[in-house]
Write a structure and sequence with these properties.
Blueprint: H1 3-10, H2 16-29, H3 35-45, H4 49-57, H5 65-77
């Protein structure tokens, strides 16, 4: 299993909307991220779904600046 396949597996969430959002982002934009941004995306995937939904849908802001940057990239990319 390739690293990208593993990442796509990790993008599978308990919420269908997040599955679609993360999968599309990885397929279309992940390769263009810097190493630091990829690390921040990994941190985002460690956060519980309800909190991520707050970031994506309700304009809540992550306390981690790197995660906040990735959230903004995902919002504007799709």
């Amino acid at each position: 299993m390739s690293d990208k396949s593993k990442l796509l597996w990790r993008c599978r969430r308990g919420v269908k909307e997040l599955d679609v959002l993360f999968t599309r982002f990885v397929e279309n934009h992940y390769d263009g991220l810097s190493a630091g941004e990829k690390e921040s995306f990994d941190k985002l995937l460690e956060i519980e779904d309800p909190e991520i939904l707050g970031f994506m849908l309700y304009n809540d802001h992550p306390s981690d600046a790197g995660v906040a940057n990735i959230v903004e990239k995902i919002r504007t990319a799709l």
